[in-house]
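This part of the workshop introduces the protein records we will be handling. An example says more than a description, so a record of this kind follows:
>
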Amino acid sequence: MLVIREAVQGDIDSIYDMIIAIARHHDQEQYVQTDREELLRSGFGESPKFGALLAEIDEKAVGFVSFIWEYSIWLGKKYMNLNDLYVREQYRGRGIGAMLMKKMQRLCLSHGVYHIRWEVEENNQKAIDFYKNLGAEFKLKGICHWHAKQ
């Protein structure tokens, strides 16, 4: 039976393993700089910097979605920024990703938040179609990265 719930401290190993898995899937493992200890501190300390929902089948983590709460000066409101959505390969095609997104949407509504934002590679048509099927709008916009150096 599939259960989707908010992640807790004891889920750090599963979350970290899936972060590595999604990075490998996109051939970007070299960019992952966090570790389990940092995730534990930053996600479950006194002032959590991110949240996550976990999808489980028979108490085994099969997917997750991570997010942070942000504020838009244009909207004048808080919104949710989705970081990662991942479902283990052998569990794809069962609607788990859509269920994670819908649970995240309900979490937003329970916080009085009506806007969710995320990034997707413009050539990832499968993901774009998935999000569009949920009712999301795809807007092409450049993303800049600037690493501050001393």
